[in-house]
Specification:
By secondary structure, this protein is mainly alpha-helical. The chain has eleven helices and no strands. α1 packs across α4.
Length: 194
C-alpha cells in the first residue's frame, strides 16, 4: 500500500532557510549533513539532489546576504547626490537590509575564514567596507563630515554599530525603519561637520 502522507517539497530556498538556522545555532563547522537532513526532515540524498554539499549551502547563504548588501551600493540614492547623503542612504539601507535578511547576515558576520567560501565572503565584506569608506572620504573632502575622524575607523565604527544588531535585535514596535533611523541619527549627528 502506498504512503499517502504529505511531505514537504523542498526547494533550494526552503532548504537554505533551514540550513541557515542550523548553521547559526550550531556553527558551520559544528554542523554535519546529517544535522541538516534531520532539521529539514529529508534524507541526505534529497539534499544532494539540490546542492553538492554543505559548503555550497554556505556559499548560497552568505552570497544572499552579500548580494543584498552590494545591491544597496547600486541604488540611485547611493550613486547620485552629495556624498554625505549617499553615505547616509547606504547606512540606513544597510541596517534595514540586515534586519530583513537577519539570519543570512548573522551567518555572514560569523564566518571566520576556515574554508574557501568563508575566505571569499570575508574578502567581499572587505570590498563592501572599502566602498563605504570611499563614500565617507568623499564626504570629508566635501567638508560635509568631520575631517578629524579617520574614514576607515569611522567606517568600522559605523558597521560595528550596525552589525551588532544581529546580537540584540528582536522584532518589536520599532521595526527595521525605526532601528535604521536611530543608527543614522546617532552616527551622523556625531560625524557631521560644524
Amino acid at each position: 500500500m502506498a504512503d499517502n502522507t504529505a511531505r514537504t517539497a523542498y526547494t533550494v530556498d526552503s532548504l537554505l532557510a533551514v540550513t541557515v538556522q542550523v548553521f547559526n545555532e550550531r556553527g558551520y563547522d559544528g554542523t554535519s549533513m546529517e544535522d541538516l537532513s534531520r532539521a529539514a526532515g529529508i534524507s541526505k540524498s534529497s539534499i544532494y539532489h539540490h546542492v553538492r554539499g554543505k559548503e555550497e549551502l554556505l556559499r548560497l547563504a552568505v552570497g544572499r546576504a552579500l548580494d543584498a548588501l552590494f545591491a544597496i551600493l547600486d541604488e540611485p540614492a547611493a550613486v547620485t547626490g552629495r556624498p554625505v547623503d549617499r553615505l547616509e542612504h547606504v547606512v540606513r539601507r544597510t541596517a534595514v537590509t540586515l534586519l530583513g535578511e537577519l539570519p543570512y547576515v548573522t551567518l555572514l558576520l560569523r564566518v571566520r575564514g576556515n574554508t574557501a567560501t568563508e575566505l571569499w565572503a570575508l574578502e567581499r565584506r572587505r570590498e563592501f567596507d572599502h566602498r563605504v569608506a570611499e563614500l565617507l572620504r568623499a564626504a570629508v573632502a566635501e567638508g560635509e563630515l568631520r575631517a578629524d575622524v579617520d574614514p576607515r575607523l569611522a567606517t568600522r565604527l559605523l558597521f560595528g554599530m550596525i552589525n551588532s544588531i544581529v546580537e540584540w535585535y528582536r522584532p518589536d514596535s520599532r521595526g527595521a525603519d525605526g532601528v535604521a533611523e536611530a543608527i543614522a541619527h546617532i552616527a551622523f549627528d556625531g560625524l557631521r561637520a560644524g
